[in-house]
Specification:
- It is a single chain.
- The chain is an alpha/beta fold and 432 residues long.
- The protein has 12 helices and 20 strands.
- Helix 3 crosses helix 4 and helix 5 crosses helix 6.
- The relative contact order is 0.16.
- Belongs to the adenylosuccinate synthetase family.
Length: 432
């Protein structure tokens, strides 16, 4: 019997995970964010009221849940404090239901400075929130963890050493002079820590002790942005696929044996920032997708690049994550299209490919091979039952299932919490 649930993005992020996590977390007692940082932006609309969460688990919008910020995340304590205060000002209790890993690494002000310098050189399309440099310091064994804030002398020493390292990079590599008030950074870091100090625990131990409770693991970004399996180097700095689940939570892979894995995908494809995007549209159809889908980043406000659904990439995400099913969002964005295309293969130098290549050079040169569907030209927004869907919309969904080899279990039919429909109710198999 499936007991826990992993929800993650099956594309390049921005798939609508926040709304789905908010909806499904009503069935779970514990919700866990386990990777990424404030570069994530999960948007939920409840009763016409909009919430955008960057660090806190989206499932915390339900008053019965315990929210976990696990060790695989990198935390900007200033933003975390602000996010907590913002929700509490709107009548949502947070600190008495929030647990923060003592092993999570911190994003410091000098990480953001370094992020801007690196982006200027490499143009990856980062959010400039210091996420990449924080992970760099983590794996370079120069990071600062939440538990380090208990030793004030050690904290000051670490901040000073880190800043001297960043300062050398600024001056010797980029030939720029920058200054940071180390004493101010030190004092502010301690003040932010004091605000969340009572929430800090050994998260992996807590999760092992509460293994009998229903847990929902909330991924950030998307599989195609995974640092190992995504379109490297145009990726995020953490494992945004299921690969990040064990190391991000501190739990053995055996812990997830009975976990149900679901991927969230749009009915078309988008991505933000730089990097290859085989089905990207530069015409009126692309503009229509962007305008109808309101495709602007919740974290940066940047317009998203839009294109037809890439089933080669989606099948790749299904396979490497061993997904049990898909949740499809924004089907209604396609309601007005007379023709709808899906990519079923790539053409590369006269060869036909059905697999997603690792090589950036190859991926930049592939041409999508499309299958064309007639549009349904009927409104699917707010549909509540499968039988409410037009037959051509059902055909579109059935083709996605056949190609990927997994069922589409749910449709999100609008931004509100109650705008969804079950196609194959998997929750009957889940113990919560």
């Amino acid at each position: 019997m499936k007991k826990d649930l992993l929800l993650l993005g099956a594309q390049w992020g921005d798939e609508g995970k926040g709304k789905v996590v908010d909806l499904l977390s009503s069935n779970y007692q514990i919700v866990i964010r386990y990777q990424g940082g404030s570069n994530a932006g999960h948007t939920v609309v409840v009763g016409g009221e909009k919430f955008i969460l960057h660090l806190l688990p989206t499932g915390m919008l339900h008053h019965h849940t315990t929210g976990i910020v696990a060790q695989g995340m990198v935390l900007d304590l200033e933003l975390l404090k602000g996010e907590i205060e913002h929700l509490e000002a709107r009548g949502i209790s947070v600190r008495e239901r929030l647990l923060v890993s003592d092993r999570a690494h911190l994003v410091m002000p000098y990480h953001k400075l370094l992020d801007a310098l690196l982006e200027r050189k490499s143009k990856i399309g980062t959010t400039l929130r210091g996420i990449g440099p924080s992970y760099m310091f983590k794996y370079g064994r120069k990071g600062i963890r939440v538990c380090d804030l208990e030793d004030k002398n050690r904290l000051y020493k670490l901040i000073r050493e880190d800043w001297e390292f960043v300062k050398d990079i600024c001056e010797k590599i980029y030939c720029e002079n920058h200054s940071i008030d180390i004493d101010k950074v030190y004092e502010e870091t301690l003040n932010y820590y004091e605000f969340i100090k009572d929430c800090v625990i050994d998260v992996s131990r807590f999760l092992m002790q509460n293994a009998d409770k229903g847990m929902l693991f909330e991924g950030a970004q998307g599989t195609m942005l995974d640092v190992d399996m995504g379109t490297y180097p145009y990726v995020t700095s953490s494992n945004a696929s299921a690969l990040g689940l064990p190391n991000g939570t501190g739990l053995s892979p055996k812990f997830f044996t009975d976990t149900f894995f679901l991927g969230v995908s749009k009915a078309y494809t988008t991505r933000v920032g730089e990097g290859p995007f085989p089905t990207e549209l530069f015409n009126e159809e692309g503009e229509n997708l962007r305008n109808r889908g309101k495709e602007y980043g919740s974290t940066t406000g940047r317009p998203r690049r839009c294109g037809w659904l890439d089933l080669v990439a989606l099948k790749y995400a299904v396979d490497i994550n061993s997904l049990d099913g898909l949740i499809l969002t924004k089907l209604d964005v396609l309601d007005t299209f007379e023709e709808i295309k899906v990519c079923v293969g790539y053409e590369y130098e006269g060869r036909y490919m059905e697999h997603f290549p690792a090589s950036l050079s190859v991926l930049e040169k592939v041409r999508p091979v499309y299958k064309t569907f007639k549009g349904w030209l009927k409104d699917t927004k707010g549909a509540k039952r499968p039988e409410d869907l037009p037959e051509r919309a059902k055909d579109y969904i059935n083709f996605i299932e056949t190609y990927t080899g997994v069922p589409v279990v749910m449709l999100s039919t609008g931004p509100e919490r109650d705008e969804y429909l079950w196609i194959k109710p998997f929750l009957q198999e889940v113990r919560v």
